[in-house]
TrEMBL record:
Residue spans of biased composition, Basic residues class: 308-320
Protein name, as recorded: RNA methyltransferase
Region feature (Disordered): 301-326
Ranges where the SAM-dependent MTase RsmB/NOP-type domain occurs: 1-296
Species of the source: Lactobacillus porci
Keywords recorded for this protein, A-Z: Cytoplasm, Methyltransferase, RNA-binding, S-adenosyl-L-methionine, Transferase
Active site per the UniProt annotation: C226
Signal peptide from the UniProt entry: none
Amino acid sequence: MLEIPAQFKEKFAQLLGEDEAARLFKALDEPSKKAFRVNSLKKGAAVSYDLSRPVPGIPNAYYGEISGKDVEWTSGTVYSQDPAAMFPAHLTDVAPGDRVLDLCAAPGGKSTALGEKLQGQGLLVANEISPSRAKILRENLERWGVTNALVTNGSSEDLSSKFPAFFDEILVDAPCSGEGMFRKSEDAIKYWSEDNVLTCQARQQEILQEAVKMLKPGGQLVYSTCTFSPEEDEAIVSWLIDNYGFTVEERDLEGVPTAAGRPEWGNGNPELARCFRFWPQDGLGEGQFVAVLRLPAASNAASGEKPAKRKQDKRKKRGGRREDQISREDLEYVTEALQGLSLPAGLENWSSRLQKSKDHVFVPLLAPDSLRGLKILSNGMELGMLKKKRFEPSHQLAEALGQIKQDRVVDLDEGQYERYLHGESLQTASQLKGFVLVASKGQVFSFGKLTTSGQLKNFYPKGLRQ
Ligand SMILES: C[S@@+](CC[C@H](N)C(=O)[O-])C[C@H]1O[C@@H](n2cnc3c(N)ncnc32)[C@H](O)[C@@H]1O
């Protein structure tokens, strides 16, 4: 039995009425619902999990539990996610070519879905304020094969100063009191208090204030929480409507067990009924609140379309060439390492767009000069690293290449796969030489390097080894 705080129970008995509240409390004592998404970017990957129980309303999503050890996971073919938490990204209008911001993005469940919707075209800025969580966000986007993400580690203020009125769509999946996570996390129960609900509400307003500055006039804001408290849900949407003139967009989720937002829990505006409330007692998954909002086209929240104000670049030049530019010799090393590999869409003409930062070679999404002052974990695609007179392709590239059929692949059996994940080198019968993609069950999850005797040197990143 979960020890649900008495104050929480009293509050929801009043808000919902005794009968509905009893259904909620009963559901909170049942096990949480597990589900996963299958990555549409990695076309043709064979998934060994049971796909017979789809999550209603979400393409490529299924009930069931996955393991972080399977190649389906290490190759970014599947991602574990609460079914209700799939809806915020699903309900956005994000389409290939858009400029999208996921402001509170770690660990990346919703960013991976937004990256899928973009299909490598346009820009996804995925931001997270906590450094350790931002690292996990980067790893998850890498695994998912997203080639057009800028991963940042900053506050909402850090970002709003760089991107005024810049984005077509912004997702704010806000830090919240986590009442919808009671079944999944003991901490959510332990740290629950009415004071914390109000602290979260104030933080949500601070974050949203900055988010609005970054939205283009006429742009879309999707606001979500994993909590039930009206203070963090309908009251926040009311505040957005009253202060910025947002309208709530209608969405049809026919066949999905969800409930409408409650106007009486906010400012009484009937549009609040267009918000979605996912309650555990309705059977889809955990608790979630989602509002799809539109900023009026003639907004005075911010103006100007330029990304960031660029400072004069005063960095040293060496022999007429800037330090971040790549030499002809370096380019030859990169070209040689990439020979025989098929590159995914979005990486065409990579050689003319290459940049270098501390020997990391990458195809940037945004000009690094324009991002000065922001903590960047990843800017587009890192192809790899220049070492002394050679080039080592990156793990991010391996995961991105796994999207399309490749010829230079060594496929490991189950035992070999486990040893490779540990960091071991393996003896193979492969006739290939040099850098190869390493797969198991046809799913690419790493680079490796084959010697002339068929030894496969391990390039699975040390930080990911199991
Ligand atoms: C609900 S979680 C995000 C989950 C994520 N969207 C996903 O789908 O995987 C909220 C995140 O917001 C971050 N956060 C907290 N305060 C923030 C702030 N002021 N600005 C940006 N992010 C913040 C938290 O560290 C946390 O990772």
